[in-house]
Amino acid sequence: MPKKVLILGATGAMGQYLVPLLAEMGHHIDAVSLDEVDNNIPNVTYIKANAKDPDTLQDLLGRHYDGIVDFMLYNTGDIPRYLPRLLDGTAHYIYLSTYRIYDNKEHPVRETSPRLLDASEDVLLRNSDDYSVYKARGENVVRASSRRNWTIVRPAITYSLKRYQLVTLEAPNTVGRAFAGKAVVLPEQAKNIRATLSWAGDVAQMLARLLFNDKALGEAFTLSTAEHHSWEEIAAYYQDICGLKPVWADKEDYIRILNPDSHYRPTRWQLEYDRLFDRIMDNSKVLSATGMKQENLAPLYDGLAQEIRRCPRDIKWEVNTHMDEYLKL
């Protein structure tokens, strides 16, 4: 039976695949984002709005959606303001967390693996508003709900159009630099660390099959492929696909290139508490709940090649000038 679905933050890496997929399944979609979207998809209405605006959110929830898929970011201060309202406003609420909540204490990583918020020995991290921390705090609030109308999803690194990650670098400093014929600096300590990158189309399929799925209610799922590679192998994929030229340097140089402010901790935390952790993911729980199979998920090389081929060559990327200066030396 078709249902009404609200997708918040609908034009990101996963949303751009999820919206048409849910519409194809017969659902009626209101897709909210800050972007202007030319829409020709039946059953989809794009709404350009800030979903964090109280009046906008109240108006949206007044439309009584059967399900909400929430890609928004809620820091610690936002959590009590928005999450209870969203949980009360629908029959099935999907909260986007992240695989970055996991500590490095168990391999492969499962949904029951220790979280940084609970297990990290870094007191500053645990008491910060880092992405990995406030996402875990959001999970705590969702779990504390008196209802079991929720699902927590924890995507691993997810690549898509204009989203091309390599260690902690994003598209402007991976594919953007490669298209411009510029080398890319990477931390040599990451060379042999195992990483998991998933294609957004596969992750959207997982989300679509969890929505309105009784097996998903009151549960958390890691959304990812089980395929994993070293960062050196992944850099070689980029080199073969788009000519990216890696230059391996000490991680301290790499961190200074990304942010010269030595007291800005999120840059270091993302590297040291995620990308330098072996991220070998166990995706058996989500495959079981959705009926999907690992052999049908996109192989990393093929998925990256497909998404990079789709990327326009004339984008004006905002590249890292500190990296240019470092390479000159």
Overview of this structure, please?
With 329 residues, this protein is α/β, with parallel strands linked by helices. It has one domain (73-328): Rossmann fold, CATH 3.40.50. 37% of the residues lie in helices and 17% in strands. It has 14 helices and 13 strands. The chain has helices spanning 15-24, 54-61, 79-88, 116-119, 123-126, 131-143, 175-179, 200-210, 231-242, 251-258, 265-275, 284-290, 300-309, 321-328; strands at residues 4-8, 28-33, 44-48, 67-70, 92-96, 150-155, 157-159, 183-187, 194-195, 197-199, 219-223, 229-230, 245-249. Helix 1 (15-24) links the parallel strand 1 (4-8) and strand 2 (28-33). The chain is globular, with a radius of gyration of 20 Å.
Quick tags:
two-stranded parallel sheet, 13 strands, 14 helices, globular, 17% strand, alpha/beta, Rossmann fold, 329 residues
What radius of gyration results from the CA coordinates? 20 Å
H and E order: EHEEHEHEHHHEEHEEEHEEHEHHHHH
- Span between termini: 62 Å
**Would you give the CATH topology?**
Rossmann fold
Percent strand equals 15-25%
SS content category: alpha/beta
Within the largest sheet, what's the order of strands? 3-2-1-4-5-6-11
Outline the biggest β-sheet: 7 strands, parallel
Shape: globular
Domains (count): 1
- Assigned CATH architecture: 3-Layer(aba) Sandwich
CATH superfamily assignment?
NAD(P)-binding Rossmann-like Domain
Enumerate the spans where pLDDT stays under 50 for 5 or more consecutive residues.
none
Helix content: 25-40%
| Overall mean confidence score, pLDDT | 97
Number of helices: 14
According to DSSP, the number of beta strands is 13
Name of the level-1 CATH class: Alpha Beta
